[in-house]
Amino acid sequence: MQLARVYRKLEQAAFRVTPQRDRVIETFYRHAGEALSAEDIERLVRTESPLRVGLATIYRTIEILVDLGVVSRVNTGDGRARYQINEDAVHQRHHLVCIRCGQVEEFSAHLLDGVEARILADRGFHVMDHELKFYGLCAICRPGTEEVHV
Ligand SMILES: [Zn+2]
After folding, report:
1. pLDDT (tens digit, 9 = 90+) per residue, 89-100?
2. Each residue's pLDDT tens digit, 36-61
3. Which residue from 25, 70, 94, 120 has the fewest beta carbons nearer than 10 Å?
4. Distance, CA 93 to ligand 1 centroid (Å)?
């Protein structure tokens, strides 16, 4: 699941994505791989954006994100509820498509963060997701193969 699908899922669940809730989702996304408590989210939103988001809104948003399978509760052992965005909700997946055998491999990396920042700065367009495919020859097809022109 990528971020655009997360938003579609929210819409389908009749969950109105307000700027405040969007901040919460984006904070989870920005800090993918970190286990965050509602208080952490509150603090991060405060330092990263001019928007104020109350703890009640954060708790409610987390609850819905957990229900939708976007965010999972993480046990950290300190008794504090912490949450983390699910790996498949993070839009960093790209595809490597072999033009010979048709095999599609996934390749994960934050390749386009700089590009997205530029699109926002230059065009005022807030990129939520992207799709990227690389065409070439896979590791099996590559050795000893003749040049393939596309
Ligand atoms: Zn191949």
Report:
1. 665 668 899 999
2. 999 999 999 998 888 889 999 999 99
3. 120
4. 19
